[in-house]
C-alpha cells in the first residue's frame, strides 16, 4: 500500500508540473502603463517676422468650440479668434504629423516652415523625423488662451513614440533642448500623440526619441526570445526528475 501510495503521489506531482503556467503569464502581460510628464528646457525663442497675406485653409468644425484644418508648409493660414480652439495639421512625415493647437480671443496668422537641415539633436536623443519645424505667428504669440505644439503618430507607424520629446532650438548653440523650463509635455495614449503646452509657440521645434529607445525594438526582441527558453528549460528539468522517480518506483513494483 505504501509503495502504491508513493506512485500515486509522484504521478500527481508529474501532472501538475506538466501544466503550463498560464496564469503567471497573463498577469505579467496584462499590466501596461505609458506615461510621460516631462518639461522642455529653456531656449531662446525667435520673433515671428511679418507674414504675407494669409491664405485660408479648409476648415471643418467638430463642434461650435473647436475647428480642425489642414495647412501646407510655408503657406500662411488664418487662426480664428472668439476663443474657439483651432487645430492645424501639416503634411505627414516618416513617423507622424505635426499639429499646432491655438485658442485666443483675437485671431492670428500661422505659418510653419519645414527645415530639412536642422541643428543638433539633444545629447542622448536622436531625430524621430529628419526635419524640424519653424513656427511663426503673426499678431503676437504671448498670453494666448491655448498654445500647443503636438506630434501625432501615423496610423501605420511601428515606432514607439511614448518616450519621445518635442524640443526647441537654442539659436546660440544650434542645438535643440529638452528638459524643464519651456512647456509641459504629455503623451496621450488614446491618440498616440505627444503634446507640448507652451507659453510661446514661436520658434523652431524638433521631434526626438531617446537614443537607447531607438535601439530597444531589436534588444527587446532578443531578450524576450531568451527568457521563455530559460523558463521552459527549468520546467523540463523538474518534469524529468519526477519522471525518473516514477520509473524507479515502477521498477520496484515489478520486482515485487
From TrEMBL:
Signal peptide: 1-18
Keyword list, A-Z: Signal
Keyword Signal: yes
Protein name: Accumulation-associated protein
Source organism (scientific name): Bombardia bombarda
Amino acid at each position: 500500500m505504501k509503495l502504491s501510495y508513493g506512485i500515486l503521489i509522484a504521478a500527481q506531482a508529474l501532472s501538475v508540473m506538466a501544466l503550463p503556467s498560464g496564469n503567471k503569464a497573463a498577469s505579467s502581460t496584462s499590466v501596461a502603463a505609458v506615461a510621460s510628464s516631462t518639461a522642455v528646457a529653456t531656449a531662446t525663442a525667435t520673433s515671428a517676422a511679418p507674414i504675407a497675406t494669409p491664405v485660408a485653409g479648409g476648415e471643418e468644425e467638430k463642434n461650435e468650440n473647436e475647428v480642425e484644418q489642414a495647412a501646407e508648409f510655408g503657406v500662411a493660414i488664418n487662426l480664428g479668434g472668439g476663443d474657439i480652439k483651432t487645430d492645424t495639421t501639416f503634411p505627414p512625415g516618416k513617423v507622424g504629423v505635426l499639429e499646432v493647437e491655438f485658442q485666443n480671443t483675437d485671431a492670428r496668422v500661422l505659418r510653419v516652415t519645414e527645415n530639412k537641415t536642422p541643428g543638433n539633436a539633444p545629447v542622448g536623443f536622436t531625430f524621430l523625423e529628419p526635419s524640424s519645424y519653424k513656427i511663426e505667428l503673426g499678431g503676437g504669440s504671448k498670453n494666448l488662451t491655448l498654445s500647443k505644439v503636438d506630434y501625432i503618430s501615423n496610423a501605420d507607424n511601428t515606432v514607439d513614440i511614448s518616450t519621445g520629446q518635442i524640443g526647441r532650438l537654442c539659436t546660440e548653440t544650434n542645438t535643440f533642448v529638452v528638459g524643464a523650463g519651456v512647456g509641459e509635455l504629455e503623451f496621450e495614449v488614446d491618440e498616440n500623440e505627444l503634446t507640448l503646452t507652451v507659453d510661446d509657440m514661436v520658434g523652431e521645434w524638433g521631434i526626438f526619441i531617446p537614443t537607447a529607445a531607438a535601439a530597444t525594438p531589436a534588444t527587446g526582441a532578443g531578450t524576450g526570445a531568451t527568457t521563455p527558453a530559460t523558463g521552459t528549460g527549468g520546467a523540463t528539468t523538474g518534469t524529468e526528475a519526477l519522471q525518473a522517480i516514477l520509473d524507479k518506483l515502477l521498477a520496484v513494483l515489478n520486482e515485487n
